[in-house]
Amino acid sequence: MDFDIASILAIDGLASGAIYVLIAIGTVLIFTVTRVVFIPFGDIAAFTALTLAALEMGRLPGTAGLVVVLAGMATLVEVVALLRNGRAHEIPGALLYYLALPLALVGVVWLSEPLYQSSMVLRILFSLILILPIAPLLDRIVYRPIADASVLMLLIVSMALHFALVGLGLLFFGPEGVRTEPMTDAIFEFGSIMITGQAALIMFAAVLFSGLLYLFFDFTLIGKSLRATAVNRSGARLMGIRPERSGTIAYIVGSLMAGVSGILIAPVNTMFYDSGFLLGLRAFVGAIIGGLVSYPGTAIGSLFVGVLESFASFQSSAFKDVIVFSLLIPILIWRSIVSVHTEEHDEE
Amino acid sequence: MSRFTLRLAVLIAVLALVGAPFLLGAFTITLMNYVGIYALVAIGLALLTGVGGLVSFGQAAFVGLAAYSSAWVTALNGGSPWIGLLLGIVITCAVAFILGLITLRLQGHYLSLSTIAWGLAIGFLFGNVEGLGKHNGIASIPPISIGSVSLVESWQIYYLIWAVVCVVLLLVYNLLDSRIGRAMRALRGGNTLVESLGINVFWIKVTCFVFAAFLAALSGWLYAHLSRFISPTPFEPLMGIEYLMMAMVGGAGSPIGGVIGAAIVTLLKNFVQDYLHYIIPSGTGQLEVVAYAGLFIVFLQYARGGVVAWVQQYLPATAIPRPSQATPLARRDKPAAGTPLLKVDQAERRFGGLIAVNKVSFDVNAGEILGLIGPNGAGKSTMFNLLTGALQTNSGSITFAGKDITRTRQSNIAQAGIARTFQHVKLRPKMTLLDNVMLGAYPRTHTGLFSGLFRLNRAEEASARYDALQQLERVGLGDKPFELAGNLPLGNQRILEIARALAADPVLLVLDEPAAGLRRGEKQQLAALLKSLRDNDKLTILLVEHDMEFVMGLVDRLVVMDFGEKLIEGQPEAVREDPRVQEAYLGGTA
Amino acid sequence: MPLLTIEDVSVSYGKVDAVRSVSLQVEEGQIVTVIGPNGAGKTTLMLATIGLLRSFGRMTFMGEDLSRLSVEDRIEKGLCLVPEKRELFAEMSVRDNLLLGAYTRYNRATINNELEAVYERFPRLKQRHKQDAGTLSGGERQMLALGRALMTKPKLLVLDEPSLGLAPLIVREIFHTVASLRELGVSVLLVEQNARAALETADVGYVLETGEIVQSGEASSLIHDPRLMAAYLGGH
């Protein structure tokens, strides 16, 4: 391998690493705030790509149907819970929040078809609008009834949820692979190193959104309340910060990041309904390098996974996934040793 | 429910299994073959996840290792399936052993994540290794033959599969009721207690893990020779989740639950396949996954306990006879009264910037009751954890019976003869009083995995059981040995911890706030018990207490700690009159 | 009407009762203390009051039934707990910790003034306002926990073992602060092991032993009860 090949592999790896950064940061955010290891963020990214592709073809994407179904289920679950707890007076609010709001988002996209035919920016915007409600609705349906369960139980549920989503993906999006229009065909040259515009865009987006998240955490009270929930859940509750609300915000922010990554990867890789799994898992390896708590650690870890994968597939494309996932074990051992473990987590 | 009805139920179940091929159609028998094969994996998971609390997503990879091993031996190299079985078991157990050595020290969810990692890595391996058929798999695997009979027909291999399942169930139930099995049952709920009982948590976990992999290997072997064709798909993580689902639906922790869970999940899948296309004509394949992933989630939300636990609450408890007299277990020699037993020298422990124990020194002499007292936050509990090995000192040394134990592993300290109780009671609430106490006898007993599986441990079990009953009687809890520990009032739970500590036949008994939460009368009984242990059993006792009234009439000497330092040491009366102690206890506003 | 009424309240862990049919009251402007030995159920009772533990029996706050209210609802109504473990946001700055105290209040204009008021009460927090809460000393942590609780503008402040693990000088300061809360119109329910200090500060005292109230009365009379004080010192 000479320098040229190495640099091509490195840049390729950094670009896919940047995609993983966006997904991994969402994973860390959700884990710290809700203790859920939300494996389906990869699926969210894939669904966003498929949504964008459908909009490009002038079709109403399957996401609309998915959101409507989930909104219906979430409303049902919430109303039943409210009735059981004798809080019937809160039902109108719940209807507005869990039913009317998601349906309104779908309606907006549906009605504005002529608008997005003309503009890529609007298509991207509408894709994100459609994708954002999914994770918070899943949170309401799937995780909130067992919010007090152990991390392990939540992890098992996440794995099951991921498989359910893959099935739903096939149902709503069909088996065809899609590739969206390139956003830019610019190519930058630095000496003998070439960087495609798309790769540059991906890396820029990773930096931009990480920066925005930092500002959100540091300068807004809502951002601080999220951190507070992550740092000390019961302490946050004692300040009147509702963990459910923090969770919803975290799911929205995480979905936004995952959605952006899906949009950025769609012109480069052909996306299928089940492409999210490996995407999510590689990002997840990155998140674990960050100990599922540290954002900078996660970013470095995700970039590392991207570069490793790129070099591994050059050496032996058949075994690249074996290499990436085998690598996870030493990382887990290292994280387990450095993390402070409290016995209470083990109590059943 | 008496033992007789239990045996009758087992007999009827076995007869039903034997008769099934005569009564049911070929398709149902095939389905039952798969139930049996899945059940083996699920039984292993019930042990691993339900009993031991180790959640594994990777069992499908173990099944695959054995299936591929046997396929390689038979279909590719023309060997006998029995050689395939041998190789499958050896490879699977070896891989499990190595993976176990590497990953079983991981904490909590890191461990489960690692099972996803190696589950995926091994899963990818099957489809990519040259010589194993890649994604096309391996076809024309020969059937298993026993003697000259080749198990080609569905009903023929049915008998082999279910015979294996029945034998495995029997062995696993034997195991759970043995010394190693009790240690496995104690794993769930944190390591501190288990280590403090002299049990090497890591090796118990490795044993449990390899045993579950062994069962997965049996399953993989049967699978390869039943379906006669293998490809990577059934050994990927999706199937790993399905196995987990079977174990949990049946009721994690219950081996028979593994069988029931495998049956429910398999039949349910079959049902979904059959009927889903009536509801939605197109795209049934994907909806199947959605349907049972959805059902699994709903199940976890509403019935985490599983089917067996649910049924059990309607069944009467099985009557167990009280343990009868047996050969007593060997006892330790106690050191002569007055000789120094434990020496703490300049022990120091910091947490970040906070010094919890600051250069504390004291001795405990054989045959005395020493009280370690001080206000809340004085560092008593930290001191306590240092000398039982639950925490490591930053500097200074601790010597027990002439041996330096400053850096000794907690379980080894326990084996050396220090038994402890906990300030926040640590019991296994879902085990009986007797089983909880028998856990304490672990270092005094010796039978291992194989004796447990094949019931070669009867004599020792009888002795340990009788000894445990005696300890329960001694502390006054002997009337209901088969009550669950979690049902005791808090005060009695503390007393139960003392019985458990006594079962270890310790030289030094260390008690962390034993009187907390006890009523006045109970405190007096406890004091009487401790005095009798000192006077009649030559036991040395170190007592960490907050309750001065309780301590005063009981101890021979007192050590007072305040703000991490030793304030004073001496006779109880002298200590009480000391103005510094008064200040520390009454607070500074006076 | 009393501010807080606890009537015949029991709390159990599984089948084990930790608190058995306890009743007590806090009047507006009062400081009420619950004293008792380790393991008596004091912390359990406080956690049930704030809603972190399920309880049976009747609890009202300002006449309103608490049973259907979540922890967060109770905070919004003006109940606030400073738990035994303080539960600070260790990896966040002192200032952020205090700001989060005001999370439930929608009028954010006055927050800076309130922040200044807390800094005035605890000047040491001002000096350390940029430091992470996790780096503070034990006494400073307790001050921050108190300051953060005051930022929620509570009507009733529940304090669980505020003197735990603190040096005598700081204990004195903390109790001085507690006493001065009367002037702010904040009522206090104080749980303490440090019986004498607690009774000297409080108006009314209750003694909790093995989950039950065994004695109650004016704090000034309890403090002179020789039997009670003996129980805490041992002997006679």
TrEMBL record, chain A:
One GO CC term on file: plasma membrane
InterPro entries listed in its UniProt record: ABC_transp_permease, BCAA_transport_permease
Keyword hit for Transport: yes
Segments crossing the lipid bilayer: 6-29, 36-55, 61-83, 95-112, 118-138, 150-173, 193-217, 249-272, 284-306, 318-337
Primary localization: membrane
Keywords associated with the record: Amino-acid transport, Cell membrane, Membrane, Transmembrane, Transmembrane helix, Transport
Localisation per UniProt entry: Cell membrane
Gene Ontology molecular-function annotations: transmembrane transporter activity
Membrane topology reported for the UniProt record: Multi-pass membrane protein
Pfam families documented for this protein: BPD_transp_2 (PF02653)
BP term (GO), one: amino acid transport
Superkingdom classification of source: Bacteria
CDD domains, alphabetized: TM_PBP1_LivH_like (cd06582)
Family affiliation: Belongs to the binding-protein-dependent transport system permease family. LivHM subfamily.
Protein name: Branched-chain amino acid ABC transporter permease
Native species: Tianweitania populi
From TrEMBL, chain B:
CDD domains in the cross-refs: ABC_Mj1267_LivG_branched (cd03219), TM_PBP1_LivM_like (cd06581)
Topological category with respect to the lipid bilayer: Multi-pass membrane protein
Spans traversing the lipid bilayer: 35-55, 82-102, 109-127, 157-176, 197-223, 243-268, 289-311
Pfam families: ABC_tran, BCA_ABC_TP_C, BPD_transp_2
ABC transporter domain ranges (all copies): 342-588
One Gene Ontology cellular component annotation held by this UniProt entry: plasma membrane
Compartments reported by the entry: Cell membrane
Keywords noted in UniProt: ATP-binding, Cell membrane, Hydrolase, Membrane, Nucleotide-binding, Transmembrane, Transmembrane helix, Transport
Any one GO molecular-function label of the UniProt entry: branched-chain amino acid transmembrane transporter activity
Name of this chain's protein: Metal-dependent hydrolase
Organism of derivation: Tianweitania populi
Species classification: Bacteria, Pseudomonadati, Pseudomonadota, Alphaproteobacteria, Hyphomicrobiales
From TrEMBL, chain C:
GO BP of this protein: L-amino acid transport
Keywords (A to Z) from UniProt: Amino-acid transport, ATP-binding, Nucleotide-binding, Transport
GO MF terms held by the record: ATP binding; ATP hydrolysis activity; branched-chain amino acid transmembrane transporter activity
SUPFAM superfamilies attached to this UniProt entry: P-loop containing nucleoside triphosphate hydrolases
Keyword Nucleotide-binding on entry: yes
Pfam hit, one: ABC_tran
InterPro entries: AAA+_ATPase, ABC_transporter-like_ATP-bd, ABC_transporter-like_CS, BCAA_Transport_ATP-bd_LivF, P-loop_NTPase
Gene3D superfamilies reported for this sequence: P-loop containing nucleotide triphosphate hydrolases
Occurrences of domain ABC transporter (ranges): 4-235
Family under the similarity heading: Belongs to the ABC transporter superfamily.
Name recorded for this polypeptide: ABC transporter ATP-binding protein
